Amino acid sequence: MENLFTCINLVFQMMLTVTMVEVLRIEWLGMAPMIGTNCLICWKLFTWARRMCPIKGIPTWRHVDEATQSAIIQSVLDKFKISDDYYGNLVAQQAVHRKCYNIHRNWRHNMKLHYKHVKNVLHVDPYSHPYEHVTQEDWRHLIDDVWKIYK
User: Fold this and answer.
1) Which residues contact 133 (CB under 8 A, 6 or more apart)?
2) Which domain of life is it from (predicted)?
């Protein structure tokens, strides 16, 4: 399980530097396919973050309330063993929170790119084309309040 944790550290792109020895050990074990956008753990984090994170008043992962953050992380921990003692391992916790922060940021960025594309390239009403899995009310909030400088 320690090797899996080493791989997850690399996947989560922690602020700590991963040594070349760890990278070689991961590739040697055949765990390299977990790295990148197809990582199943990353996909689960994204899915739960998208379902559970509110959009209004939450510009970044750090603004998501602690109960929601814990629920998202626990849903991933129920399916994957990230560390032998996740709650006692500060490095594992930091890695998961950093990945959640990046996933949330990318999700918000992709919504904004969708808005710009609909408005500027397709030249259609962006209010009638909300981003996938976003309610009409949340989409209107993003356009009117968050991205008002792009109107």
Assistant:
1) 50, 51
2) Eukaryota
